[in-house]
Amino acid sequence: MIVWSIANQKGGVGKTTTTVTLAGLLSERNKRVLLVDTDPHASLSTYLNFDADALPASLFDLFQLTTINRESVRPLILPTAFNNIDIIPAHMSLATLDRVMGNRSGMGLILKKALHSLANDYDYVLIDCPPILGVMMVNALAASDRILIPVQTEFLAMKGWSA
Question: Can you give the residue ranges of the AAA domain (predicted)?
């Protein structure tokens, strides 16, 4: 399983669009793809027709688990309307994660641990990152094998890339 984070500290540079496009291309090649929406705005979840307020569980729930293993993580995963693509959706409650979790030891490795438990279930994991550096971004980067930084060729977008 290869884990990619699509990250940039600036919003509106195409992180979600890039994530969806890559997932579609991988799916067409019969690769099993897990999408992880780490942005409290839930753009990726919304793009895939999920109503974040009506979901039974979200990525926020991962950080509430006392034990992280395949059995505890699987209920957070939802199938999408697309072949070979599943998602762990986001919820607005992710915006409170930094405050709720504080500086607890090991907080930056929770997502990595969860994804490791799913290693036999997926070929690729694509993490759509939030535009801020916090617990979610740290988790995404720590869990990743590779990082893709989409940028627009304009001054302010380049500023987010260099931050």
Answer: 4-161
